[in-house]
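Exam prep: given the inputs below (a chain plus calcium ion), describe the expected output before reading on.
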Amino acid sequence: MHILIVEDEEKLARALKKGLEIKGFAVDWLADSEKAKTRILLYRNEYDLIILDLMLPGIDGATITEAVRKENVTTPIVILTARNETEHKVDLLNKGADDYIVKPFSFEELLARINSVLRRPANVHPGVLKVGPLEMDAATRVVRKNGVEVPLTLKEFSLLECFMRQPGEVLPREKLFDHVWDFNSLSWSNVLDVHMKNLRKKLNNDDNDGALFETVRGVGYRLAGEIHE
Ligand code: CA
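Solution:
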């Protein structure tokens, strides 16, 4: 597992790098935000996870996240933030972060978040799933809509997988949350809505025009369609 740390506080960065290396991760560290953005774009398949500080000199972590997601980089991103406002956290997730951790944090807490973000669903079935215009290869993590690949983040993929295994069924919010996040994540319900919104946007789902997902008020969501053999 190869991790990129982008953090301008040298002491913290060195401590994280050392701690993660002891846990068996290969770790690169960059302090410069411009260099980090370039590295992420050029070596998009090199890293399994990016730990990105929010407050960096130059471009901040949220802007980097937004920029690389626009370029279809799907590597999981965990943001280190000193701020604690709910609006701000929603904003980070909206820009494409997979999770965030508020400073100061313990190394164990960070490790738990990393493992949570990297966690693949326990029951990955081989083969290609097809529901309506959607096609998903769980092994290669490739999703196509009408044959065109849709780049999804790890969390978006896990969410969609949950729907595609149970098409036509109303999936309660709690069930979706439990499938994609673990108890280490804060269980404020915004996080699910934000990821659903991003997923719908990426799958080009206009609610007025042949909606793929249906919102069942007060319960959860439903993916229209049936599994094709
Ligand atoms: Ca900083």
